[in-house]
Design goal:
about 425 residues, mainly alpha, Growth Hormone, Chain: A, 18 helices, globular
Amino acid sequence: MPRAARRIAMFPLLGTRRFGPLFGVQFLGAFNDNLFRFGLLFLVTYRMLADSPEQAAQLVSVASGLFILPFVLFSGLAGQVADAVDKARAIRIIKFAEILIMAAGGIAIWLGSIPFMLAVLFAMGLQSTFFGPIKYAIVPQHLEGREITAGTALIEAGTYVAILSGQMAGGLVTPMMLMIGIMLVSCAGYVAALAVPSAPPAEAGGRVQANILASSWSVLQRVAQSRHLMLAALCGSWFWMIGIIFTSLFVPLVKNTLHASEGVANLFVAAFSIGVALGSLLVGRLQRGRVGAGPLAPALIVMAAASVDLYFAVNAFGGGDAELLMRPMDFLARGGGVRILLDLTLFAIAGGAFIVPTYAILMAYSEPAARAQTIAGYNIMNSAAMVVGALGAGALLSAGLGVSAVLLWTGLANLPVIGLALWLRRALPPREVV
């Protein structure tokens, strides 16, 4: 077969009705989640509780927990519901619910009620929980086999660009702009949802367990009953664990080690998000329609190498005046600043190249009638992995290990995971691709 014939056109998928509207829905949803969350963060920190920094910090932690909590509690139920109904219809219902939730969010901002804001944030996390399994499970119903990896790459890249854009916009808008913005974006998401083609359940009469503990256990069993799906889920959860460690340590690394301003921390977040997006697109292009675990081991090696060089780059950089924090341009102009940023970007690019194949494997190899449940079980594992990562990093820091050393050992921990990636590659059964 000619080389050009094997190449799957990735970006033209955005212009098709079978993928373009879905991409728009998930992009706008991720953007709105972060616009609202970070808008509230800045509103509370810089306006409502400006004179109470400790209370503001506590509230930020509570808000983050409330947004993640629905993913832990309701992912199982969300997966079962998604497999039992037409996924396009479910998307429209979820996006209409988002309009109502954002209307409530606007009222909460107008009233200046922090408890109301937190309740809305929990509701936003709940609707995201129900949308999560659908946005991946619907892909194999609308894309051909050789398009799955390309579609997954676009979704991952779009998600990270949307997250970054939402976070940046949330820090720039006024309360009134935030109220208007979240409503406009949610309405645009609903309009895009109307164009998503029908995706009926693979089997009629799918079981839905109202008991959230039973449904969570059921979807976890869906993942565990297949060796290759379990291995893919473990690999993916590994990335989310190390990802939360890296991103959560950006601020202390920048402020306390590098003695740089919050602008430099934002630069790190941007580099990481853009890096994951680039890595997602790169692996989508290199795979040329193949669904497999081939990119995982090389990506792990690159992440380990980048973390080692990051450690030495940070130590060589030293740090500026602790009282006069460096601005972004000063940081980049100083020797070693660009090297640190490039290491972070390289780590993130490898991370994007690592996570896309795991999602593609989960979608391509899961049973069509239980695909959303497989993704839901994976989401539960991701949430648990992120909690373990956050607690583990905190424990290492409490034990006296420096921030750069924690990042070093986190990066080096990728090397043993190469064995897991190679095991997954051998475990994948032959698959017919159309």
